[in-house]
Amino acid sequence: MFYRPENGHGLPHNPFNAIVSPRPIGWISSRDADGVRNLAPYSFFNAVAYTPPQVMFASTSAKDDQDNTKDSVANIRDTGVFCVNIVEYAARDVMNRTSATLPRGVDEFDHAGIEAAACETIDCHRVANAPASLECRLTQIVDLPGQSNKVVFGEVTGVHMRDDCMVDGLFDVTRFQPLTRLGYRDYSVITELFSLARPDD
């Protein structure tokens, strides 16, 4: 099958997310200008550079009570900081609760019963028991073609790794089993690894 997105796919559901998968989930914590905390998962998320370490996430919809965007982007635009929390399989249900569309000013940490901890390098909270958290300072927000499509880039200024995820000096993802996003309503979990050496190693 072949289709041009501009003409539609003719299928019951859009296959795009299923094709580009699995995707890591960035559980983005932020705060608004008044200090109200926000926590929301984004599957258009990834690392984009090593030195300095940088990450991105994209927001592709808007809320009626925000200016053509969602709470996370609005908060980061106002404060210049955010934290990326890595989602483990054990947190799948509580993460899903934070994806609910809630009114502006609702604290998702409180709403979902999630323990928060203060970040070290930025004025923001993180998920206290996350396998890892990346404290970030905003570098730029890029508007993409399409309605409400925005990409947020940040430089990582602090890294938290949970002690039980460290094995012989390595961050071992099998210790917490990262949750990944597929297409439709589907998710997957990483439970095993294999290694490949590059030809020039």
TrEMBL record:
<dbReference type="Pfam" id="PF01613">
    <property type="entry name" value="Flavin_Reduct"/>
</dbReference>
<dbReference type="GO" id="GO:0010181">
    <property type="term" value="F:FMN binding"/>
</dbReference>
<dbReference type="GO" id="GO:0016646">
    <property type="term" value="F:oxidoreductase activity, acting on the CH-NH group of donors, NAD or NADP as acceptor"/>
</dbReference>
<dbReference type="InterPro" id="IPR012349">
    <property type="entry name" value="Split_barrel_FMN-bd"/>
</dbReference>
<dbReference type="InterPro" id="IPR002563">
    <property type="entry name" value="Flavin_Rdtase-like_dom"/>
</dbReference>
<feature type="domain" description="Flavin reductase like">
    <location>
        <begin position="20"/>
        <end position="177"/>
    </location>
</feature>
<protein>
    <submittedName>
        <fullName>Flavin reductase</fullName>
    </submittedName>
</protein>
